[in-house]
């Protein structure tokens, strides 16, 4: 299935991230954490598909994606930056394996936080956010996505770390084995991972090596 939907507006999030708010086709459903393959409905772009996660609440009147654009090459995300209200995107079938299984720690690298946005928004809206934790690594403080929104979720424990921003007052540590020893004490909880493939692979191995049950670790397969 595929359908062309109109962009209602775009909202800046960071220097290279925007919300893309779209009309919602009748009967179009998804669960928090799920994604779809998206194309730009312009000549020469319709067959160039990229996976993006829905970041709106599942019962919202509109659809939303929160997308980071990469300006170093002429790809889909670079072209997306040129779009605005009235342009169209092509959406396809919904899929995804990052589903909420219960309270735990969400660990993300950069834009890898996007699959967690709808999950955490939904937990917050349904008063179930307490007991969850969000750990995100970015290169610099200005790269943090939705910092104010996450920090405003009462009951959500948030830990930011940056790896290339010496002027920042935030934690400046890479998420490695030593980081997990210092900052993650409960290895019996649920873990949710998203980020660059090498990071996710390393974190899965580190968590398992530290004693976490691999059955409690969720990632995009």
From TrEMBL:
A Pfam family: NAD_binding_1
Record keywords: 2Fe-2S, FAD, Flavoprotein, Iron, Iron-sulfur, Metal-binding, Oxidoreductase
InterPro entries: FAD-bd_FR_type (IPR017927), FNR_nucleotide-bd (IPR039261), MRET (IPR050415), OxRdtase_FAD/NAD-bd (IPR001433), Riboflavin_synthase-like_b-brl (IPR017938)
Superkingdom of origin organism: Bacteria
Gene3D superfamilies, alphabetized: Nucleotide-binding domain of ferredoxin-NADP reductase (FNR) module, Translation factors
Annotated organism of origin: Devosia ureilytica
Obligatory cofactor(s): FAD
Annotated protein name in UniProt: Flavodoxin reductase
Domain FAD-binding FR-type: 1-101
GO terms assigned for molecular function: 2 iron, 2 sulfur cluster binding; metal ion binding; oxidoreductase activity
């Amino acid at each position: 299935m595929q359908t062309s939907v109109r962009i209602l507006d775009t909202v800046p999030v960071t220097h290279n991230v925007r919300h893309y708010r779209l009309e919602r086709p009748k009967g179009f459903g998804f669960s928090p954490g799920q994604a779809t393959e998206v194309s730009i409905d312009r000549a020469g772009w319709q067959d160039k598909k990229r996976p993006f996660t829905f970041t709106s609440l599942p019962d919202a009147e509109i659809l939303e994606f929160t997308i980071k654009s990469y300006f170093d090459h002429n790809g889909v995300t670079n072209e997306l930056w040129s779009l605005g209200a009235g342009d169209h995107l092509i959406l396809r079938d919904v899929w995804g394996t990052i589903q909420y299984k219960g309270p735990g720690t969400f660990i993300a690298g950069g834009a890898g936080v996007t699959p967690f946005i709808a999950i955490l928004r939904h937990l917050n809206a349904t008063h179930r956010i307490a007991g969850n934790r969000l750990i995100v690594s970015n290169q610099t403080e200005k790269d943090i996505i939705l910092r104010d929104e996450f920090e405003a979720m009462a009951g959500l424990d948030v830990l930011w770390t940056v790896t290339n921003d010496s002027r920042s007052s935030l934690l400046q540590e890479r998420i490695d084995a030593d980081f997990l020893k210092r900052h993650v004490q409960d290895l019996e909880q649920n873990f949710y991972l998203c980020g660059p493939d090498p990071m996710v692979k390393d974190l899965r191995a580190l968590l398992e090596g530290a004693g976490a049950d691999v059955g409690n670790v969720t990632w995009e397969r």
